[in-house]
Amino acid sequence: MAHTVGTLAKALDSFLSFHLEGLDSPAKTTALAEYAQALALGVGGKSMMSLARHIAPDNVEGCRQRMQRALALGGFDAAQVFDRIQSTVTARAGRQMQALCVDDTGIAKQGDKSVGVQRQYSGTLGKVGNCQIVTTLHGLSNTESFCLGGRLYLPGSWSGDKRRLAKAQVPENIGFMTKPEAALDLIAKAVERGIPKRPVLGDAAFGDSRDFRDGIRELGLDFAVAISSQTSVWGPGVQPIVKPRLGTRGPAPSRFMGDNGEQPIAVSDIARQMHQRGAFRKTTWRQGTNKSLTGQFARVRVRSAERCTKGLPPSEPLWLLIELNPQEKRPYKFYLSSLPEKAPMKVLVDLVKMRWRIEMDYRDMKQHLGLDEYEGRTWGGFHRHLAMVILMQTFIALHRERFSPRSKTAMELEPVLQSAAKRTRALA
To answer: What is the 3-state secondary structure (H, E, C) of 133-168?
Structure first.
């Protein structure tokens, strides 16, 4: 264990040096390293004061002030840290990465001063509550996952309030973005930086956006995303066209319809039709802890039709994948994918089911690394905190094999952090 602790402590020193060097003044960079290490300590309640007590018990207030200044008054953009994280993950785990995935998570907050907070629906809370929402990008496979960056959602109630924006120190170039727009921006920047081009996954909050799906395709990527049950598509074999004008009076037709007069259909109706025909088949997607994971699936080629009433064209041919679970109140789940027509069913199912890894990332970032416990209120402070959380999540993910598979990985970092922290303090 001593050898492992010493080796990991040196690896952590090197890791933090590479990802933090030159971002800010030497004093603030050292404070950021202290803060990142402190976040991974197995302590309950990761307030700035609590972290300072554990990482610098001989100078608690001085350490607290250094970390507070480094986050609140830092002279760097969190995107610089995300750049370096993505380069590291690409170099060390890019070949193993099977998909990119976008998601969002809620952070419960009191009051109305923390940047981006308002009463809004959060899947994390399972209801409408006072919270912040963070959109994140991840690289993953069935065995690994890395958070690659994120952005706080800035609701309309904030983006139109100049006084509120100024108080939270939101940069002037930061405007309102929907969550799908923010996710697409994160993906586009990651692709520009050289992240491996992999299919993009996401839940229906992203998959229901035709603009998001089209944007993914414009980046040269495939997608396999969840959609809601009322999504409209052109059914199998339908060739949507705009019929030619008859006569000379009135406006020219602009609405698409099937060449035999067919209209778009909800995916829920297709699911019922396929169920009646006995089209669902058992498919296994991966080996679970105790048994193979299997389910009933059917698929068919369709074109999405969300905007056909506005004269906009149907999508390219896509796979509509339907999952059946008769025991559930809502027995069907729906996915759209741009994977090629020849893609095997197992590949498609494995891909849409890979999103389970995101919950592992959020577990590490919230339960072990204090994502939801930042006390600051400014835009820059929150994103620098987010960057340090993701930085430590990346280190843990890259070194996960060094820890016991039954352990809570971040908790086992404690002796490593104590060893590294002594050297950090010595340099301060």
So the answer is: EEEEEEEECCCCEEEEEEEECCCHHHHCCHHHHHHC
- Map residue 129 onto helix, strand or coil: strand
Q: How far apart are CA 221 and CA 338, in angstroms?
A: 9
Question: How far is the C-alpha of 259 from the C-alpha of 79, rounded, in Å?
Answer: 49
Block residue for tokens 């930086």: 193
Which of 1, 54, 125, 58 shows the shortest CA–CA distance to 426?
A: 58
Q: What is the dihedral of CA 207, 213, 217, 220, to 10 degrees?
A: -50
Cα(51)–Cα(65) distance, rounded to whole angstroms?
A: 11
Q: Which residues contact 365 (CB under 8 A, 6 or more apart)?
A: 147, 371, 389, 390, 393
The b/e string for 307-319 (b: 16+ C-beta within 10 A; e otherwise) is: ebeeeeebbeebb
Name the least confident of 22-31, 38-47, 190-199, 363-372: 38-47
**Neighbour count for residue 287 (Cβ, 10 Å):** 10
**Would you say 394 and 144 are in contact if contact means Cβ atoms under 8 Å apart?**
no
**Cβ distance 317 to 239 under 8 Å?**
no
Q: Which residues of 143-160 are buried (b: 16+ CB within 10 A; e: fewer)?
A: ebbbbbbbbbbbeeebbe
Q: Tell the burial category of 121 from Cβ atoms under 10 Å away from its Cβ (0-12, 13-18, 19+).
A: middle
pTM score of the predicted model:
0.89
Query: Inter-axis angle of helices 379-398 and 26-39, to 10 degrees?
Result: 60
Q: What is the pLDDT of residues 38-83, one digit of tens each?
A: 888 877 788 899 988 888 889 999 999 999 999 999 889 999 999 9
